[in-house]
Amino acid sequence: MKLLMENWRRFINEQELDKGALYVLNNPGTPLATYVAVLKKYAADPLFDKIAAAGQTDGQPGDEQVSVERTATAAANLVATQAEIGFSNSLADQMTNPVWKPVQKALGLAGTPIIMPSPDNPPPAILVWNGKYILDGHHRWSQVMMMNPTGVVAIDNVMGPAIDNEEEALKIMQFAIAANADQVVTKPFEGQNLMQASEQEVAQYVLENITDEVLQLLVEAEKIQKPDKQLAARYIAGNLPVIKKSAGRFSREKSMPQAGASGVSQDTVNQTLGTGKVNFDQPRPSDVKAAEE
Fold first, then answer.
1. What are the extents of the domains in the chain?
2. pLDDT per residue over 43-55, tens digit each?
3. 3-state secondary structure (DSSP) of residue 9
4. Residues of 9-19 as b/e, b for ≥16 C-beta within 10 angstroms?
């Protein structure tokens, strides 16, 4: 009898946890970090999988269809959602131009719209909501911003009637990652935050690290008049206020989408969202029952 009662209490507690998780996912006021924490806990749960895939059979088959359109815009038109931008991530490769030639890319010398190198193959465009707010690709964007803020970058623009703001867009992207990958991985922020750096710090970094090759490329792109370190430092440091105006408000470690690290390509996530199957709007167990009927 004691064992029976313990099992019953455990069952009741599990049901309450499920209800609590669904409340978090259904409440528009849930902070993004809390929403992501619940997805991390339940992404591999078989019931979550069923609910998450019931978007076309929940009684409203078109309410969750999200379109992702490839287009382009100037880098300076975009706004960060991530609070931290890595100093080294933004500048190190741009000062030394490794074999994947990120400087030519950022300066637009390799063609436009700009798509920066990435571990993903093919390299993705910057993922944004409403043509403005960056959902993924902050460091690819920040490299262009520091070298060529007027440069035109390729973007994958996320749009849909169920998305009212950038926080909702981030929640939907994380929900779709959970539905596809059965896990949600976010990466901690490491190193110095560019958003808290000064122009003097940036200028000093440029003076100490920029190569002759990069100086020549800046001249070719008509960013400086001659291959001079002082001119380059002044030009690049002068772009810092532009990027700092676009500071985001969400923690990378607690909130920001990382499809690849979670085990699914961003293209797959985008395609799934396009089908309307991802049941992110008011997900309930009853949606699964509708699907089974």
1. 2-292
2. 999 889 999 999 8
3. helix
4. eeeeeeeeeee
